[in-house]
Amino acid sequence: MRIAVQSDPFDLGKESEDFAAGHTDMGAIVTFAGVVRDIEGDTLDRMVIEHYPGMTEKALIKIASEAQERWSLGDVLVIHRYGDMRPGDRIMMVATAAPHRKDAFEAAEYLMDYLKSRAPFWKQEFTADGVEWVSAKSEDEDALGRW
Amino acid sequence: MRIAVQSDPFDLGKESEDFAAGHTDMGAIVTFAGVVRDIEGDTLDRMVIEHYPGMTEKALIKIASEAQERWSLGDVLVIHRYGDMRPGDRIMMVATAAPHRKDAFEAAEYLMDYLKSRAPFWKQEFTADGVEWVSAKSEDEDALGRW
Amino acid sequence: MKLDILYFAWVRERIGLPKEKLETSAATVMDLVEELRTREERYAMAFSDLTALRVAIDQELTDFDAALDGAREVAFFPPMTGG
Amino acid sequence: MKLDILYFAWVRERIGLPKEKLETSAATVMDLVEELRTREERYAMAFSDLTALRVAIDQELTDFDAALDGAREVAFFPPMTGG
């Protein structure tokens, strides 16, 4: 398991390649990357992600450990950034390696569902109209009901 | 949509990076890679994948088009190899880009479920014990019932 | 009607060739299978259990009771194992 | 009992500081919230709707009725928006 909480950008291609290369005994590799959407005509100028140093790492390790208990996994990777981000930047990624695709997919979805509403990150959007904290979505809370 | 059927290896890191970089208006990027498992002590020497030239491309385009009709997707990538493969080699990958994670995940799972049993590929394993065609698994056929 | 008949994977191995041309008046895939079965033992063997086989007409998956009207290419193969 | 109290996101902004030390005899998180509410208007504002708040004791998510026994750090923040 590797958990990284960092302000620096990460290299999605290299992280995906290295993760897969490190687990050639696993038949299935799934990755998810979350991006600050760069939408033409959108007023979003930048996004700032605040986090809770200390708790963030613990929460991510707990979520990843629970995924490893629930599914047959070779490994889990979570990278999540904080700080200043621009449209088009990658915010975070997860990767899972498993003998079979069902485990790799479900574990990645589980990680994402829990990351969304159980890891202490808060997004703030700076738009042409002002500054706003992103509200938690009820569908993200509801998504946990699946597990 | 990009569909590639090829005997050459593909670069998972570069394909993942390029796919994500080409869709910065999408918040969610999911990739799946299928690997010839390299298991210590395993007798697998190599794998040969046979396919049906002409039909393969059509089947993959059909599967990808159906995914694009069912989910809100920005794009779909499918790369599938045929020919000779060794343990640890990547057989195939899919990638999906969507505004939201649920669509990206479900579409990638759908692509994989259909690729498994509706695209004309046949795997043959060469082991220390001989040569054998891989049997279709009933759970792969059952997986289609989800959609 | 002149058809290209294609075989893949172990069907190809049992029959011993990947492709052949056939002049036939078979109305359906099933009629074509019956005709092939009577040719030689290796065909009878390959087509002994149709539940273990899949068929495509002109590169589209179909059923054994499908009509061959206008078909140019018929392919027989085991269940697919892609991904 | 001496506690570190941490605030994040708009809770931090409303209260106007990220962290403070507090000497308290509050038995539960709820007691602590009541105590904070009485301090100043900005605290009363920040804690006006507890359904919009989450709490962690020693960096573990918990509930407002959790006991503070042995706690060193209590954090208040809005629902999380990671991923």
UniProtKB/TrEMBL annotation, chains A, B:
Keywords: Molybdenum cofactor biosynthesis. The keyword ATP-binding does not apply. One of its GO terms (biological process) is Mo-molybdopterin cofactor biosynthetic process. CDD domains: MoaE. It catalyses: 2 [molybdopterin-synthase sulfur-carrier protein]-C-terminal-Gly-aminoethanethioate + cyclic pyranopterin phosphate + H2O = molybdopterin + 2 [molybdopterin-synthase sulfur-carrier protein]-C-terminal Gly-Gly + 2 H(+). It is an enzyme of class 2 (transferase). GO terms for molecular function: molybdopterin synthase activity. The keyword Signal does not apply. Pathway: Cofactor biosynthesis; molybdopterin biosynthesis. It holds the Pfam family MoaE. Its EC number is 2.8.1.12. It comes from the Bacteria. PANTHER family: MOLYBDOPTERIN SYNTHASE RELATED (PTHR23404). Heterotetramer of 2 MoaD subunits and 2 MoaE subunits. Also stable as homodimer. The enzyme changes between these two forms during catalysis. Belongs to the MoaE family. Converts molybdopterin precursor Z into molybdopterin. This requires the incorporation of two sulfur atoms into precursor Z to generate a dithiolene group. The sulfur is provided by MoaD. This is Molybdopterin synthase catalytic subunit.
TrEMBL record, chains C, D:
Coiled coil: none annotated. Transmembrane segments: none annotated. InterPro entries: Beta-grasp_dom_sf (IPR012675), Mopterin_synth/thiamin_S_b (IPR016155), ThiS/MoaD-like (IPR003749). It comes from the Bacteria. CDD domains: Ubl_MoaD. It comes from Shimia gijangensis. This is Molybdopterin synthase subunit MoaD.
